[in-house]
Amino acid sequence: MANQLAKGYKLKIIVYTWAVHDKVDWGIWDERINIRIVPYSRYFQKLIAKIFYYLWVKIDRPDNIILNFLYHGETALPAPSNIYYVLHSPASLIPHRYEYIREKANQFNHLSFIAVSDFVKQSAMPYLENKNIEVIFHGIDLNRFSHPAKYVNKGKIKLLTIAALEEWKGIQHVISILSDNELSNEFEYTIIGEGSYKNDLIEMINQNNLSSHVRFIDFEEKVESILPNYDIYCHLSDGEAFGLSLIESMACGLPIIVYDIPPFDTLFPINIAIKLKNKSKELLKESLLELISVNERKRIGESGRDFVRDKFMVENMAARYIQKMSQVEL
After folding, report:
1. Residues 191 and 292 in one domain
2. 68, 180, 269, 295 — which has fewest CB within 10 A?
3. In a domain, 330, yes or no
C-alpha cells in the first residue's frame, strides 16, 4: 500500500521497521518512500524501538501515523499524533494483546482503529468500546498476478495450501479426506509453510499412507509465481482475520475452498467460492469431486478473479485510507 499512496497521491511515506535476520524481498520501492530501520537486539528490542520512534517522530513530524502494532515500543509515540491502528487479527486469537490495547489506547488523543474485516471489527468491539473502528479490506496489485491458472486436466489435480502449520489452520482436514481412494487417485496436495504442527501432519500422512500424494515444500518463490502451477486452493481454517492468500489465489483464477464461517461467510459470495459447512467431510469430498470438471474450476476461478478486480484492488484500499485520513478530497 505504501507504493500506491506514494505513486497515486504523491505522498511522502516513511516506514519504521526492524532489522531482521531473514530479509524479505518487497520489490521496488517508490522514490518517495524512506525506510528507517531499528537496530536488532535480542533482549532489548522494545526499549530500543521506543528510543528510535521517539527521536524519529520528532525529526520527521508526520501528519498521520499508521500502526500495525502497539506493544513493541509504539507507546513512545507522542500523544497528540493522528494515529490509525490497523487491527490484523481477531481478538479470539490474541486476547491478551487486545487487553493491552484497551489499557493503552486512552493515552493517545487522536487514535482510531481500522479492521481488516467485519469479523475482526466485531471481535474487537468488546475491548474497544466507544472507539471508532472502520473496516478497510486489504488490497492487492492485480498486475502481479498476470499469469492466471490454466484450466486443464493433465495428470492429477493439484491442491495447494499456504499457511502456518498450526492445528487451527485445518490442513489436517484435507489430508484426512485424501485417505479416500476415490480422491487420492485424482488429487495430490502440496503444503507450503512452517510451524509447530508439522510433525503431527507428517504423522497423519504416514498413518494414512499418503506420502506419495501429499508433500511439503519450502516457500522460496514469490506467491504469484507459485499459484499458477496449481488447480485448487484449500483454506479450511477455523477463522482468519482476512485471508490474504485466498485473495491472491482468486487473483490467479484458482477456485478456493473454505468453511462457511467468519470472516468467509460474509467476505465471499457463494458463486465465487466453495463454502462448506464447518468440518463437513462429506461436503468436502463432494466439492472436490465436482472440481474434477475443468469447466467447473474455470467457472468459479474466473468469477473469483473478477470479484477480486472489483473488490480487493490496492487502489481501492489506498483510496479508503486517504479518505479516512482526510488528506485529499475524493
Report:
1. yes
2. 295
3. no
